[in-house]
Amino acid sequence: EAGVAQSPRYKIIEKRQSVAFWCNPISGHATLYWYQQILGQGPKLLIQFQNNGVVDDSQLPKDRFSAERLKGVDSTLKIQPAKLEDSAVYLCASSLDWLAGVNTEAFFGQGTRLTVV
Amino acid sequence: AQTVTQSQPEMSVQEAETVTLSCTYDTSESDYYLFWYKQPPSRQMILVIRQEAYKQQNATENRFSVNFQKAAKSFSLKISDSQLGDAAMYFCAYHPGGGADGLTFGKGTHLIIQP
Q: Which pLDDT score is estimated for A68?
């Protein structure tokens, strides 16, 4: 079974530039998450999708971050414009279906390490 | 809001010995799930073990076991017969019993295995 795929693995941009990350979840997984992991901290949830709908984006800085999950499969996370404090690892995860009460394991991708200079 | 606290930024253990990583959490829910994840330098989070709060029996997975104390809101991870491949960051995580909300993670414990 293929895991959660993310690209790119690394990205370096200057502040005020824009950047996009891509995630392909495990086939059949309805729930998709984006987490931000700042160095020395645990991951923090940015947004959760159920199929192609957003169920929680309360911690997403909506003035600069946006995310979409078209057709309920792949997802992209965009930052525009980037700030120095956005330097972090961005992790994508998927699970079968939290909302249906099927409490299954969340599988994580290898993340994208973003450096804003 | 739920919080997860890992008070040990770093732990060191000799190969083949036993080590315990601590985790406490705060929640007003009665139904929830607790997890330990391992994050090696590759950055990919790997599930080590999970515990359902309604189960009194502590979860075990081979060399990994937990001590779940619901009243004390404590969830420690014991690694027996430590191996070099166990070296990684370990994160304790909480998930409410149902509905939306992702995982809430602690800050992690860096586990070093001394050969």
A: 96
